[in-house]
Design a protein that fits this description.
Blueprint: E1 2-4, H1 6-14, E2 21-23, H2 27-30, E3 39-40, H3 46-49, E4 58-62, H4 67-78, E5 82-86, H5 89-92
């Protein structure tokens, strides 16, 4: 499984790269803020919502600490998606936040 550090992600965000970020935390967790541009798909909804994703794109998966996003990565990889797990998740991320 490919991984990315939060510093690498922040550098890509600062460079205005076109990123596909999926936040797999629960509703109450995303209320505390999300990475700008991230799409919220709770981990339990990934299998039923995978059809909404584009297999030609690479997705960066995010959760609180990295374990749930790793599970999401494993599932999506098994379905033929290109995914990257954000190491340390939101606990390690100290960049800009967006509130929805």
């Amino acid at each position: 499984m490919k991984t990315m550090t939060t510093d690498e992600l922040i550098n890509l965000l600062d460079a205005n790269e076109d990123l596909n970020i999926i936040d797999v935390r629960e509703d109450f967790e995303v209320e505390e803020g999300m990475i700008p541009g991230a799409v919220h798909i709770p981990l339990g909804s990934i299998p039923e919502r995978a059809a909404e994703l584009d297999k030609s794109k690479e997705y960066i998966m995010v959760c609180k600490a990295g374990a749930r996003s790793a599970s999401a990565c494993e599932y999506l990889e098994s379905q033929g998606f290109e995914v990257i797990n954000l190491e340390g998740g939101m606990m390690a991320y100290d960049g800009e936040l967006e509130f929805k």
